[in-house]
Amino acid sequence: MKRPVDHGAMAVSGYTVPWHTAAGTPIALHVSSSRPVRDVHVVRLDTQAAEPMGWRVEPTGNAVSRRDFDHGSFLRVAAAELAKATEIEGVAFEVYLTRNDGARVLFESGNLRLGLQDGRLISGEDGNSPDSDVVLPANTWLKVEISSNDGATVLRIDSDDLLSPFRLDRRFDLPWRLLTGDMVFGTSTANDVRSLNAKFSTISLQTAAGRIAWTFPTLLPRGPLASTGTDRVLFLETVNQPAFCMTSRRWDGSSFDPRLVPSHYDAVHCHDDDMEALQWPASYQLQVPAEAPAGVYAFEVGHDEGSERIVFFITSSERRAPLLFLVPTATYLAYADEFLPAHLYEWMCEDRGHRFAIDNNLKSLYDYHSDLSGVSICSTRKPKATLRDDYKYPLCGCPHNLPVDLHFLRFCHNNDIAFDLITDRDLHELGLAGLQEYQAVITGSHPEYMSVEMEHALRQFAAAGGSIAYLGGNGFAGKVAFQDDLMELRRSPLEAGRTWDGPIAEQSLSITNQSGGYLRASGRGEFSLTGVAISLMGFDGARPFTRTPESRQPSAAWLFDGVTSETFGDEGIVLGGAAGYEVDATDPHLGTSPDTMVIARATGFPDSFVHDATRWYEGGDRERDERRCAEMTLRHLPSGGLIFCASSVAWCGALPAGDAMNDVGRITRNLLTHLAQEKSGPAPDR
Hints:
Blueprint: E1 2-4, E2 12-17, E3 20-22, E4 26-33, E5 37-44, E6 51-52, E7 57-59, E8 68-70, E9 74-77, H1 79-82, E10 88-97, E11 103-109, E12 112-117, E13 120-123, E14 129-135, E15 141-149, E16 152-159, E17 167-172, E18 183-185, E19 198-207, E20 210-214, E21 225-226, E22 235-239, E23 243-246, E24 267-270, E25 282-287, E26 295-303, E27 306-315, E28 323-327, H2 329-335, H3 352-359, E29 377-379, H4 402-414, E30 420-423, H5 424-430, E31 440-443, E32 449-450, H6 452-463, E33 467-470, E34 478-479, E35 481-483, E36 486-488, H7 526-529, E37 532-537, E38 545-547, H8 554-557, E39 567-568, E40 582-586, E41 597-602, E42 610-611, H9 620-626, E43 630-636, E44 642-645, H10 663-676
Parallel strand pairs: 3-27, 28-30, 28-31, 31-33, 32-34, 33-44
Antiparallel strand pairs: 1-8, 2-4, 4-25, 5-6, 5-26, 7-25, 9-18, 9-22, 10-15, 10-19, 11-12, 11-18, 12-13, 13-14, 15-16, 16-17, 19-20, 19-24, 21-22, 23-24, 26-27, 29-36, 35-36, 37-40, 37-42, 38-39, 38-41, 41-43, 43-44
Helix pairs in contact: 5-6
Protein name: N,N-dimethylformamidase beta subunit-like C-terminal domain-containing protein
Domain N,N-dimethylformamidase beta subunit-like C-terminal: 263-656
Pfam family, one: DMFA2_C
């Protein structure tokens, strides 16, 4: 269902295609605006002040205007496809209704519409004959059959619920006529009502030439689905990105792996707030100069009341520095347009990006659909209204994600620390080849989400002698998958209480069919790679770190050159300190290597900081209370590389700005200077 963009919170919104690119390549800006656009130019954001680049941005001829969002997924067999069939005599499908209020449409074709009004069936010619006493049951599989018989239309609906069986037989005296329109499931042919919240499976047409059927694959398709049955192949479209690889009527709990029992996962889940990649026309284009340095950039779109910046990334196409910064675009995309509903969260500050998301019913991968199922897939081809250099997270009133990472990159520029840049999507595509020429990979403040391919490449890199400077917290945790402009994330019930949690039976990713959830559930992830994982989360005051005796051993003492205080990190732009928001700690039980050194620890966190729900402590409550800490670690690898873990999302925010220096800055500068040097060979004695 189309709706114009609500620009009440932000006069301009948009996205770029591609989102990240290399020097010498084109990039297009797709924009919606409620105000006349005054000018568009490119600025670089990772320098001390936003730096105008002077690059020529060309209009495409598609004038900027207020664009539309199209919400709600459904299924369609186009009229041109139906014309291929020989005399359609009936249709059958399976449907699992979830939560639907108001007017909805279950099925429409020709003169027949099956509708719902607050759950009650409305059926008949054009859906105008109410069956006021019939409520279709939700949360159970229904088999729907419609057939033409002796000049009448027959409707049969049966449920699979053994305890509360449902059966409906209806006969309409008017014949079912297909006419010349589309056949749709989950919306009206005019797409003028909210689409249906429901799972669909096993759609078939009965024709004079035989049965034409569609089975939904467990792997996300790249286009329409071809039918089976007769020689004439018809195509069914899945519109607006419903979720694939969902449990169907055949699922019996015998397996949670769709690769073993694909027939148990041959359903799609449609939602009234699904949104696929947008198709706004490009209004501006840029040919990125061949000499453009890698970094974080934005199109700055000016209008008569101000401006907005639409972020993109220019990556390194050749090695120019020994250090490589890994931009956590998977995390950025997962958080983009987060709803943060007021009935669940107390906002500490306002942010126009979140208001824009709420006004336009956008969803992040932290949000849930209107039927309470989790949002599991999204596209880069959408506005990312919360991805801004001036963004502040309403739950803590502080910068979060991109602006914190920009604070770190500016620190590097100010201290002559050279770096190249790669996005994690690049790493997913390139694997180890994207890292091989570098001494060390540096992360941002919150590299939470990774594909299996990304994590494996980092593991290979470290095993071959490379180093990893993990300058954040709660990283290398959640598993994602990519396909074209899409990213998918299925959350595990283990994550209950932190965000939506899906049923374990629907945890598999439709892009790969791998199990979703935590990487560590697949034997990889945080503990086995870095040695630490999230231990606490909170939005009150951050804490400083204090050195441990182990930090004075020769293999670690170099990190603290110039640091005169035992305790450091008592200031910062994220919650006022170096250890805060989400912090990590070791756990040998979960995989921390015995050669991991804890070189600093932060304690004294407020009671509002909650423990990670996935951790179990042998000593019970007493041990858990003793482990209310963040632990900075250092591990020297047999390959000659090392892994440093700041173990806090707030660490990069505690770096000094401009020409100033503090102990967090000294430790970070010592680390990066050391990593930029030639590889040192085997691990030193401790």
